[in-house]
Design brief:
The chain is mostly helical. It folds into two domains: 9-57, no CATH class; 75-203, no CATH class. The protein has six helices and four strands; from the N terminus they run αββββααααα. Strand 1 (28-34) and strand 2 form a beta hairpin. The longest helix is centred in the C-terminal third of the chain and has 31 residues, at 173-203. The model has no long low-confidence stretch (mean pLDDT 81).
């Protein structure tokens, strides 16, 4: 890239992301100031898939930490704001899942229990508010997943009830067994991919 001054964290993040356009990102020589002293360090970004794009990442937070703003709401306003947030998270979860199924988003973005435990620990270290927010996000995401029309999930059982209410008879046992088998295979496949991603991210 040559010698280039960096004015803020946003510019630095964009420069790091752009390094993936060169294939294997080269080692970058950074001149930084720490504790009043000028230091020269070498940084080689990794290549990651993010939002269907190949970008460079360095595995460290760049820029100032976001400012925490406390907002006070009344009981009704709080319930309404909470409902809006649940709707936003649910819509986002469905959108991301749809993009994965359509091939627009890499399955490498699917995280498993190892990554969830890691994020939980990091959020807990940041404070109770961050930790509770993370737990709420995970709860909503799992709730949305559980309501998908997939056999063995609650959403699949709702589909069975809908079929019975429309046709007047339950799903045949033979079909029920086949659907349960397909649903179980689908869930196990997703779990295997998520765990593989967790292990690969930590080894690579």
């Amino acid at each position: 890239m040559g010698s280039m001054p960096v004015n803020d964290g946003q510019q630095l993040r964009e420069m790091i992301r752009a390094t993936a356009q060169q294939g294997r990102p080269p080692a970058l020589a950074w001149q930084i100031e720490r504790a009043g002293q000028s230091l020269s360090i070498e940084v080689r970004p990794d290549v990651r898939e993010e939002g269907g794009q190949t970008v460079g990442r360095i595995g460290a937070y760049v820029g100032a930490a976001p400012e925490m703003v406390k907002v006070s709401k009344g009981p009704l306003q709080g319930l309404w704001a909470g409902a809006e947030r649940v709707w936003e998270v649910s819509a986002l979860s469905l959108k991301l899942l749809g993009r994965m199924l359509m091939g627009e988003l890499s399955l490498k973005n699917l995280s498993g229990p190892i990554a969830i435990a890691d994020y939980a620990g990091k959020s807990a270290a940041m404070g109770l508010t961050y930790y509770l927010g993370f737990l709420a996000f995970i709860s909503v995401s799992l709730g949305v997943l559980n309501l998908l029309p997939v056999p063995v999930l609650d959403g699949g059982h709702l589909m069975y009830y809908l079929w019975e209410s429309v046709t007047g008879k339950p799903v045949a046992d033979a079909w029920l067994e086949r659907l349960q088998y397909v649903g179980m295979c689908l869930l196990l496949s997703m779990m295997a991919i998520a765990v593989y991603n967790d292990i690969a991210n930590r080894l690579g």
